[in-house]
Specification:
Strand 4 and strand 5 form a beta hairpin. It is elongated, with a radius of gyration of 23 Å. It has a six-stranded mixed β-sheet with strand order 6-7-8-3-9-10, with helices on both faces. Strands 2-1-4-5 form a four-stranded antiparallel β-sheet, with helices on one face. With 303 residues, it is of the alpha/beta class. Helix content is 33%, strand content 29%. The protein has two domains: 211 residues, Rossmann fold, CATH 3.40.50.300; 80 residues, YebC, transcriptional regulation domain (Alpha-Beta Plaits, 2-Layer Sandwich), CATH 3.30.70. It has eleven helices and 14 strands. It binds adenosine-5'-diphosphate and magnesium ion. The site of magnesium ion (MG) has 4 residues, from helix 1.
Length: 303
Amino acid sequence: MSTVEINGITKYYGQQKALDNVSLSIKKGEVVGLLGPNGAGKSTLMKIITSFVPPSSGTVKIDGFDVQENSLEIRRRIGYLPEHNPLYQDMYVKEYLGFVLKTYPNHSKVSATVDDIIKLTGLEPEKKKKIGALSKGYRQRVGLAQALIHDPEILILDEPTSGLDPNQLVEIRKIITELGKKKTIILSTHIMQEVEALCTRVIIIDNGKIVADDTPNNLSKKDKKTTSYKVEFKEEVNKNLLEMLPGIDNAKNIGKNYWLLYSNGDIDLRENIFKFAVKNKFNVLSLSIEEQKMEDIFQRLTH
Ligand code: ADP
Ligand code: MG
C-alpha cells in the first residue's frame, strides 16, 4: 500500500481555483520534488496533505487514514516545514524544541530526544541562542528540527532551501539527503537543480495541475525527442507565424526578437528555419540548436 494517496483534490479560494483535480500516490521511501512556478499550487497541496487546509473536493489518505477525519493519526505520521516557517522568536532553540515535542501525545524522554535532533540538524553551536537571533540558515534548521522531533515517517518540506545562501543551501541539502534514506519526503521548490540533486521523483505542477510525473533521469531522456532552436531575428516576428513553421510545435519569446522554437522530433530543422525567414523577408542574426536541459523541460511544460 502506498503511503500517501491523493485522490481528485480540487481547491478553490473563493473564485480562484488553486488545485484542479489532482490525483497522485506516493510510496514509502520516495523523495518527491514538487516543482512549479510561484502560484502553481504547491503550498496549497502540502497544506491539504498535512490537514491544515480542507480541500474543496477530493480526499487524501495517509496509511489508509483520511486526513480530514483522523488528524491525530496524521499529525503523528507527518513532519511539516511550512513555507513561511513561523517560529517563536523569543524562545531559545532548545526550549522551543522541547515545547514542540511536548505538544505530541505520548512523547518520551524529552531531553534526550531534543539533544539528538539538535545534533542531527547541526544546531549544536547555536542551541543556546534565541531563535530571533539566528541566521536564516539556522532558523531553517530549527524548522527542520521541529518537523523531525516526533520521528515522523513522512516529511513535508515547503521550499526548505528558499532564501538560503549557497553554503547554507549545501548544508540543508545534505541533511535532507540523509533524511531521505530513512523517510518519505515531499518537498517543494522552484529550483531545478534541487530536484535533480535530491529527489527520486519529480512532479511538475502548473496552474493547479500535474503536467509531468517521472524520475529526473527519465524526464530528461523522454525529452531527447524534442529539439529546440534559439533564433535571433533582426525584425519583430509574430509568434503564431513561427508556430506555423513546419515541424515547429511551440515558440517562446525569450528577449527582444529572440525566440526558442521547439519541435517534437530530432530532425534538424535549421534549414527550414532559414528558408522560412527568407520567404517572409526576415533576417536571421543567429541560429543554434539548444541542448535540452531540465530547465528547458520545466519551462516548456509550465507555459
Ligand atoms: P505555490 O506554493 O505553488 O506558489 P500556492 O499554493 O501558494 O502556490 O498558491 C496557489 C494559488 O492559490 C495562487 O494563485 C495563490 O494566489 C492562491 N492562494 C493561495 N493561498 C491563498 C489564500 N489563503 N487565499 C486566496 N488565494 C490563495
Ligand atoms: Mg508556495
